[in-house]
Amino acid sequence: MRTSVFLCISLAGGGVFAAANPPPLLPAPVVSALADELSGETAKRNLEGLARFHRQRGSQGFHSAAELVAERARAYGLSDVQTLQFPADGKINYGTQRSRQAWDADVGELAEIKDGATSPIASYAAEPIVLAEDSESADVTTDLVDVGDGLLDGDYAGKDVKGRIVLVAAQPGEVQDLAVGKYGAAGILSYAQNQKTAWSGENDNLIRWGHLDSFTTNKTFAFMVSLRTARVLQERLRHRETIRLHAVVRAGQHPGFYEIVTARIPGSDPQLKDQEIAFSCHLDHQRPGANDNASGCVTILEAARTLQKMIGDGRLARPARSIRFIWPPEVEGTVTLLNARPEFAKRIKAVVHMDMVGGGPETKAVFHVTRGPRSLPSFVHDVAWAFAAWVNEESYQFAATDSAEHPLLAPEGGREPQRAMYSAYTMGSDHDVYQDSSFAIPAIYLNDWPDRYIHTNFDSAANIDPTKLKRAAFIGAAAGYFLANFSSHDVVATQRAVAIGRLMREVSDMERQAPEGPREEYERGVLASLDSFNAGARPAAMRSAVSAQVEHAHKYRRRAQPRGQLVVFGYDYFADHAKAAGIAMPKLLSYDGNWGGGEEYAYEALNFADGSRDVQQITDELVAEYGPVPLEMVLEYLTALQKIRVVD
Fold first, then answer.
1. pLDDT at 16
2. Is 532 a member of any domain?
3. Which end of the chain is more exposed for a tag (fewer CB within 10 A), N or C?
4. What pLDDT does residue 20 have?
5. How far apart are CA 247 and CA 285, in angstroms?
6. CA-to-CA dists, residue 82 to 101, 102, 264, 491, angstroms
7. What average pLDDT does this structure show over 276-281?
8. Relative orientation angle of helices 516-534 and 491-512, to the nearest 10 degrees
9. What sign for the dihedral angle of Cα 638, 439, 369, 294?
């Protein structure tokens, strides 16, 4: 065990006394040229442009951001630049995603009226984040009532909230059916403290992004305020002071479109150019939304600019496979694209997905290269880690000694070492969609977590580090370009990267005491993915080594439709269909394991239902990935999936 840990650390990069640090997988001149051409400043200038827009799906702000990206892509010489549009009317389904109508807002003002004077509390014009997404128009003058969390009937006991605005600690969408639908509240004022980290509550001036339910019939409006503002209001209400509020909102949902910008660098090999390596991000979110996720959008744009320019200048050979760049709304846009345009899903061999990659020291961000789920073994994650570990070492050597060949610095950025982590699979962005068993496309996931300012008015360009953007762009561009040219000639070098990745996974698995059988099966799948990639096939999902001996057991296979994960943005396919079928919510969905929660267990349970496993074998895989879970819970969930016709 000690030997494995030592080898893992030494081979992965990060050795303090390393005398030389040759780049992995790509020739040194290519690496040097990439390092020189990539510009953190160019990326940040583009980020500052995007951060001006309040980029809600289907909104004018999103459209303006999409136009900016498309204009830059054309200026950089990319091919086939398009803004694809897919109708979103609240009724059309794209696989597991029920389309959400577009949402726009023109006015959102909340003020207190006292002694004939008006005191502003929240203004959409000043800070769009104060108006919860999917708010509807209103002009209301009424009193404020504190109902605590607002999630339970008991929170409203003895309180007259009809026609009033309720002050709640929960997200607006979590309380609106109860507060508005059942008790007749006129609107909601929320100080929800979502996205909790070690720094939650440290700055009580933060205003956090709020959401209302996109599909409920209990339409309303909601404003978001800081914890400090909420505490002042609560203290006044405790002293039985009447707080009179005036809310004016001009906003609402309307039929619109999901807009997805896409561009391409065409491949050169007649046999391979129809295959694609995709770069993905998500273009939506609140203003400013600098790290989440203007940073990912501009970083894949910078990778696109760099690769296209170097190819055009003759400094880089045109890749064998094509390289695709995609800027969608988060998750729902990707589910929509892969269902509405199945040729995209068919062509894409692997994805480099970036969601939050620019957080500077003030954000407290930790940078991750995140592996894929165990249900989809692939070598592509080890390729990304090879480049990230090299950047770790180069940047550390420079920080420690003021001497390194490629510290990957931006003149306007920091000089801190990159300490990227090679992390086990976590959910939360578009990489989940690609790696869902409907599509089985391995995705490299580059991401910051934690980030103390995520989904707040402080997620601003001032907290973005151009050096971090440049390094993330390098890891993505190098990995994507390598995969676009990957052939049998690269197998030996890639096997070394896989061996290093395996050592790192072994350390993690031993610490978690994961069962040995599923671990070995996964590693065989990673090695097999080298051959399947070259053969033009999808990486095979892991097959149970025991299944052939258990012919009498019931096995589960996912149906071909619907395609996509079962919980998407603003819509829960499972909950909707389970309710219609009269099925109680399975206990697995609220289960907390050692390293995963109910959503992760459910996601992988469905992915592992490939026709080769019975419930015991699926449970064993979940135990290896996320920790112990009762077989009965897994069986209950799979049975529910069968009843709603997701699996057979």
1. 43
2. no
3. N
4. 65
5. 24
6. 22, 20, 10, 35
7. 98
8. 160
9. negative
